[in-house]
C-alpha cells in the first residue's frame, strides 16, 4: 500500500488526508502545532460563495463554493447552519440598489439546487424590524440572502476525527523541517498554508506560483446579535460583516498585506477601522471599551492582484518530484480542493 505524508493539519491538509484515506492510501498527517491551530480557526466562520467575488467576475469559484456549502451542512449539521444575511441599501451611498439586486439574483442562479432559500428585497420597515440599531436616515431597505455559518475550529476537529476513524495517523507538535525527513514516503503533500514556501524553497527549481500573505482581523463585542449584516466599508470597494457568533457580535475583517507567514494580533489601527465602519451604520456607536476580544489569521492567497481584496480565493497545485505543493483556497471549498489534490497526486504516483 502506498504511504503518503501530508504536512499541515489546517483544513486544506486535513481534507486532503481524508480524501486520500477514503481512496485506500496509508496517510500520516503532520502539524508543527495542532490541527486548526492557525488560519483555519481564524476565518469569518462563513460557508459562503462570496457575494463580493461576483464583482471581480469569479463566477466559477462562486458557483463551486455555493454548491460546496451544502456538503458541510449535510455532513456535520451540529457544527454549521444556514445564515440569513442582510445587505442594507442607503440612498446615494455605496453600491446602487440595482447592482446588489443583480448580484443576489446571480447568487441565486449559481446556488441553484444547493438547498438554500433564495434572496429577496425587504422594505426599510422590515429591515429595521430585523436590525433595529441600523441608521434609519436614507435607508431604502435591504437585500436578504443566505450563506452558511460554522464553528471553524470544531468543524476542522470533526474532519480530523474522520481521518482517525479511517486509521490515518495524526502527529501534532511535529514540525517537518526538511523534505529529506520524509524520504521514505511514496509521496508528500505540502499543505502548510501560509508556510508553503518553506518546504517548496528546499527544491532546486523556482516555484511556479507566488503567494501573498494577507492578514485579516476580527473583533468581538459581548452583545448578542439578532441579524447578520454584510455592509460596504464607507468610501471603499471592500465589505465587512457584522455576525452573530456564539452569543456575541463578531465584526470583520481587514486585509493587510504582510511579508511573512506568522499571524500578528489585530493592530489598534485595524480595531479602529472596524469600529469606525460599524459606527457609520449604527445608531449606538461602539467604542474600544466594548471590544472584549480579537483574533487574526493570515490568508495564503495566490498572488494575482495589486489590491489583495481582488485576489482570487482559487487554489493551485504544483508537483515537483514526489511532492505536491498546495497553494491558496478557502475553507468552504476545502473538501473539493482535497479531492482535487488527490487526483493530482494520483498522476505522480502512477
Ligand atoms: C481573516 C480570514 C477570514 C476568512 N474567512 C473565510 C470564510 O469566512 N470562509 C471561507 O471559506 N474561508 C475563509 N478564509 C480562508 C480560510 O480560512 C483559509 O483558506 C484556510 O483556513 C486555509 O487553510 P490551510 O490549511 O491552508 O492553512 P492553515 O490553517 O494555516 O494550516 C496550515 C498548517 O500547517 C502547519 N504547518 C506549517 N508549517 C509546517 C511544517 N513545516 N511542519 C508541520 N506543520 C506545518 C501549521 O501549523 C498549520 O496548522 C478566511 C481567512 C482569513 C485569514
Can you describe this structure?
The strands form two sheets. Strands 3, 4, 5, 6, 9, 10, 11, 12, 13 and 14 form a ten-stranded mixed β-sheet that branches. This protein has two domains: 133 residues, Rossmann fold; 181 residues, 2-Layer Sandwich (D-Amino Acid Oxidase, Chain A, domain 2), CATH 3.30.9.10. The mean pLDDT is 95. The protein has 350 residues and is of the alpha/beta class. It is elongated. It is 28% helix and 29% strand. The longest helix has 17 residues. It binds flavin-adenine dinucleotide. The site of flavin-adenine dinucleotide has 39 residues, from helix 1 and strand 14. This is FAD-dependent oxidoreductase. Its cofactor is FAD. Belongs to the FAD-dependent glycerol-3-phosphate dehydrogenase family. Pfam families: DAO.
Amino acid at each position: 500500500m502506498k504511504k503518503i505524508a501530508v504536512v499541515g493539519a489546517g483544513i486544506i491538509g486535513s481534507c486532503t488526508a481524508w480524501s486520500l484515506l477514503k481512496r485506500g492510501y496509508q496517510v500520516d498527517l503532520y502539524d508543527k502545532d495542532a490541527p486548526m491551530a492557525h488560519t483555519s480557526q481564524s476565518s469569518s466562520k462563513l460557508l459562503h460563495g462570496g457575494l463580493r467575488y461576483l464583482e471581480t467576475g469569479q463566477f466559477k469559484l462562486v458557483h463551486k463554493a455555493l454548491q460546496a456549502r451544502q456538503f458541510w451542512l449535510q455532513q456535520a449539521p451540529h457544527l454549521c447552519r444556514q445564515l440569513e444575511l442582510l445587505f442594507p441599501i442607503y440612498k446615494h451611498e455605496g453600491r446602487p440598489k440595482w447592482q446588489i439586486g443583480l448580484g443576489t439574483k446571480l447568487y441565486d442562479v449559481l446556488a441553484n439546487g444547493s438547498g438554500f432559500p433564495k434572496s429577496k428585497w425587504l422594505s426599510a420597515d422590515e429591515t429595521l424590524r430585523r436590525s433595529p440599531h441600523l441608521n434609519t436616515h436614507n435607508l431604502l431597505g435591504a437585500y436578504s440572502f443566505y450563506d452558511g455559518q460554522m464553528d471553524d475550529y470544531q468543524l476542522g476537529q470533526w474532519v480530523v476525527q474522520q481521518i482517525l476513524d479511517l486509521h490515518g495517523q495524526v502527529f501534532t507538535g511535529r514540525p517537518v523541517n526538511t523534505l529529506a525527513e520524509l524520504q521514505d514516503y511514496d509521496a508528500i503533500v505540502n499543505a502548510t498554508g501560509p508556510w508553503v514556501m518553506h518546504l517548496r524553497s528546499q527544491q532546486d527549481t523556482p516555484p511556479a506560483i507566488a503567494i501573498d500573505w494577507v492578514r485579516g482581523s476580527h473583533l468581538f463585542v459581548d452583545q448578542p446579535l439578532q441579524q447578520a449584516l454584510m455592509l460596504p466599508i464607507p468610501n471603499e470597494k471592500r465589505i465587512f460583516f457584522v455576525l452573530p457568533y456564539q452569543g456575541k457580535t463578531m465584526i470583520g475583517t481587514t486585509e493587510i498585506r504582510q511579508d511573512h507567514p506568522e499571524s500578528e494580533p489585530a493592530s489598534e489601527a485595524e480595531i479602529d477601522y472596524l469600529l469606525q465602519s460599524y459606527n457609520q451604520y449604527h445608531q449606538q456607536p461602539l467604542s474600544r471599551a466594548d471590544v472584549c476580544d480579537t483574533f487574526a489569521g493570515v490568508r495564503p492567497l495566490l498572488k494575482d492582484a495589486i489590491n489583495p481584496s481582488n485576489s482570487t480565493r482559487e487554489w493551485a497545485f504544483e508537483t515537483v518530484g514526489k511532492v505536491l505543493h498546495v497553494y491558496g483556497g478557502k475553507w468552504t471549498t476545502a473538501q473539493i480542493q482535497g479531492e482535487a489534490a488527490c487526483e493530482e497526486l494520483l498522476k505522480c504516483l502512477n
